[in-house]
Every structure is written in C-alpha cells, then in structure tokens.
Amino acid sequence: MEVGFLGLGIMGKAMSMNLLKNGFKVTVWNRTLSKCNELVAHGASVGETPADVVKKCKITISMLSDPAAALSVVFDKDGVLEQICSGKGYIDMSTVDAKTSCKISEGITSKGGNFLEAPVSGSKQPAETGQLVILAAGKKVLYEDAIPPFNVLGKKSFFFGQVGNGAKMKLVVNMIMGSMMNAFSEGLVLTGRSGLHPIAFLMYWTWVELLIQCSKERNRQCSKAIIPLHFL
Fold this sequence. Notes:
nine-stranded mixed β-sheet
C-alpha cells in the first residue's frame, strides 16, 4: 500500500518512519522540504505540494500543528482539494476542533473523496514506538481501508461514527489526562509540605500499573453491568 503523509513535525516524522519500516511505500510533504531528507534516506518519495501527494496516493494522512495549518493544507493553492476525488481518501490525524474537522470533511466530500478524522492519544515516544491510540470518525469504509497503517501507527484504534465525534473524544481524553496530571502535581507538592520525601511519593507511583489494571477491570465490569460491591 502506498500512503501519502503531510506534515513532518515531531509526530508526523515518527509516524512516517514507522510506516516505512513496516513496508509501506510513503510519499511525504512538509512546508520546509528539507525536513523530508531523513525520510527519503529511508525510502520515502517527496511530493512538492499536498496536491502532488494526493494525486499519487489512494490514502493521504496529515498530522499538522493546529486548525489553521489543517485548513490551509486542504483549501489553499496546490492543496488537497485540487486532487482529491472519488476513490481517494484523506485522513486528518491532527488535534483540531470538531468545527474544523467538519469543514474539512465538507470540502473533501464535495469533490467525491472520503474523509476520516483520526486524532491520537499519545505524544513523541508512543509515535516513535507505534503505541498511539487512534480516535477515528467519518467514512467507515475509509476507516476499514486504513486499518493496515493504523495497526502500524497505534496499539489500538476506535471508530466513533460521524465526523466531529473523534475530535470531541480527543478533547474529553485531554481533559481527563490534564486533570490526572494536575492531581499528581498537587500530590507531589503536598507530599513535600507534609514532611514526607517526594521520592517516596514517586516510588509509590511505580506501582501505577496496579492502578491501571484495576481501572481496566472496573471498565470491563461497567460494560457488562456486573459491578460487585466492595465496600459498605
């Protein structure tokens, strides 16, 4: 399978490299074309514009910095819309708001193409090791076609239905992760102010895998409505 990839920042570069290492043919593009050089050394081809990449590839993925960049790559001159058509798919894996995703979807589908939003949970290291979690929504047939590259890029992918739902889920996940980090930071500060050594607090959290396993079990119980009583 040949895949196009637009955007070679911290995330996009690592994701493109994983595709190459796993046998995919990859055509890349970045605003600063010199950032493509390392990927070319590993076998990638380069498109001079986003339109060139879309013309060459059945599926094109983007991983861009913000909503403005995501819109620009699609709607500007030499952008995705100039070559997207029936039989081609465009997957935006950037973290953007639902309104931006819907606008991109409207543009892509107006040309006969398929669109999927697929923001990810995870940052640099999971991107490098193929351990991202993919939160997809949009055209189901494109999601199914994208399973092979998704299996390389992430450890798990989910499909949430219509466009906008993936972006919304990513915001929910970010809210929860932010709350957890805030609570962790407050706990670390409270540890020190209570006269305890912060290292003791950090040592305790090396057992975090236990907490994760408990959370997985509780999620399983909730999904089956079999929550046992463990208190009172």
